[in-house]
Amino acid sequence: MKKKAVIILVGLLMIGLTGCTTKENEKITVVLDWVPNTNHTGLYAAQQLGYFEEEGLDVEIIQPSEGGSADLIAAGQGEFGVSYQEQVTYARTAANPLPIKAIAAIIQHNTSGFASPVDRQIASPKDFEGKKYGGWGSPMEVATLKGLMEGANADFSKLEIVDVGAMDYFTAVKDHVDFTWIFYGWDGVAAGLKNEPLNFIKLQDVDKNLDYYTPVIIANEDYLAKHPETAKKFLRAVTKGYQYAIENPEAAADLLLIDNPEIDRELAVASQKYLAAEYQSDAEKWGLMRPDIWENYGKWMYDQGLLENQLNADEAFTNEYLPQ
Which Gene3D superfamilies match (predicted)? Predict the structure, then answer.
């Protein structure tokens, strides 16, 4: 009897353990394009509010090694990444193209441009003459500066270009250069908080071809072909995260700070309030991308001699994984 009772007890325990077993969430790695900031808030909101978990995903958000996310995603070192249209365009048109594809626009319009302290009196590309620009050594920077100056009948040879690397805007313009390229949603907002007035030349206001998507979410196209449902689950959760950030900017900033306490809260909240109107902007829904934006910028890059081949926009982006 004792032996039979033990067998029954063990059987009941096994049934109980089996009933408690749940399917493990699918592990996903997201590679950022830079240090965490308010461009990424929707990702952190999705994580902190349980949207990823609701989709059966266990998501880890990591910072990239030097060089950005494109190479890592192409090599299968992450399922999804944060990149920008320029990087994807280079990747798709290279002699040996990288198999990456943009699947969502984080911000609908290009909020970047050239910024300078007001006392430098730089109000248009014409005023770049005789000034010193601080950049990060990209051929695209040179092409953009040259194109804008030529459009304003300015002499590009009169502009001095200095490589300041990752130096922040405030340090750069204080001691080294007259103007730099910034994202208004971060450095522009920070300048307002610091009470340091600046002149800002937004790229899309000067040349419509420069209204490109930056940043975007990317994936390896082979991964997308093999795991389309995972991609849809991921973007469902991320969409909810960015919608939350649009509707609750201050609370969303606090969610970003949970994993990134080194970020200044005042700046995060102010930046979040600015971006709340920019994430989706005039698009029908968050994340949606238009072919003409990809085609226009791709043609502009090709015309500037920046690309080896012309861009096929259909190979560079897709909206098919966004929530319907």
Answer: Periplasmic binding protein-like II (3.40.190.10)
